[in-house]
Design a protein that fits this description.
two-stranded antiparallel sheet; alpha/beta; five-stranded parallel β-sheet
Length: 289
């Protein structure tokens, strides 16, 4: 269960509503495994801190810092909320070792501090990803990263995402480089749909490169059924894009079967920068090997 925009859920009661949601999910599961993940823009680690230690007690947090750094490295664009990211080798080493990059430092884009200290948080709590529904849709064209990046870089960061200590997340179709876009779409009554369409265009103005795009093309109407239809996956691409599918399959197999990669051990990885765009990682098992 993924909880959206938890920073906008306000509750000052002793039993926070997010804690109550987590408790109810686990009760309803009746012993089955559950995973409750929060999107939280300010990166508040108390969300995954145990309840008995004053936290919310959920299982995971999206690591937006990791995603933002990856997008800059893959596309070369660091505008809007990507402004404070370099996509550098050191950022990736720090992200896999420590979770968040911003742990209370000043965030120029928001002109305030961002993040909370995460050095004590086990790596499994951090959900690492290269794509999600918001970020692909925010390209305006709905382009996935394989349309925007050098294939070699994307393969390298795919391997990092799937083997690093964090918990990896794949967006639907990412595993076979889906050719279908993922656009912003919504089913609303006519008046609300009109407002959503206008609001969407206004939101995307924060990206200067998209302002240029809007002068040349019209944004897809979120309320148009054809916008939704364009986003449907073609699963025959598992065969026609077999190289990308095999890459993801093999990396996930390695993660599942190798005891070091699957351990998600705290402080189980270290690294060094070799060049501005190159780094090396060492993973450590229980015996230090």
């Amino acid at each position: 269960l993924r909880l959206d925009a938890t920073q906008q859920i306000f509750d000052t009661s002793a039993d926070h509503i997010l804690t109550a949601v987590g408790r109810r999910v686990r009760e309803a599961a009746r012993g089955r495994a559950t995973l409750i993940v929060a999107e939280n823009e300010p990166q508040e680690v108390r969300i995954v801190r145990p309840v008995e230690k004053g936290g919310i007690g959920l299982d995971g947090l999206w690591n937006d810092d990791y995603h933002h750094s990856a997008v800059v490295a893959l596309t070369g664009h660091n505008e809007a909320y990507y402004t404070d990211y370099l996509g550098s080798a050191q950022e990736f080493i720090s992200a896999v070792k420590y979770g968040y990059l911003y742990q209370g430092q000043r965030y120029k884009w928001q002109e305030q501090r961002r993040g909370t200290p995460s050095l004590h948080v086990p790596p499994a709590h951090f959900v690492t990803f290269l794509e999600n529904h918001d970020q692909i849709a925010n390209t305006a064209r709905g382009h996935r990263l394989h349309r925007l990046s050098d294939p070699g870089r994307l393969r390298a960061l795919t391997a990092l995402t799937l083997l690093a200590p964090g918990t990896p997340m794949l967006f639907m179709g990412q595993e076979f480089a889906a050719s279908s876009p993922f656009l912003f779409f919504a089913d609303h009554p006519e008046e609300l749909a009109r407002l959503v369409c206008a609001g969407r265009a206004e939101f995307l103005k924060q990206f200067p490169s998209l302002v240029v795009f809007e002068r040349q093309a019209t944004l897809a109407n979120p309320a148009d059924p054809r916008t939704f239809e364009r986003c449907k996956l073609d699963f025959t691409e598992r065969q026609s894009h077999a190289d990308w599918y095999a890459l993801h399959r093999d990396l996930l197999k390695l993660r599942r079967e190798d005891r070091v990669f699957r351990a998600q051990k705290p402080r189980g990885v270290d690294g060094a920068v070799l060049a501005p765009e190159a780094f090396v990682l060492s993973f450590f098992g229980d015996g230090g090997d």
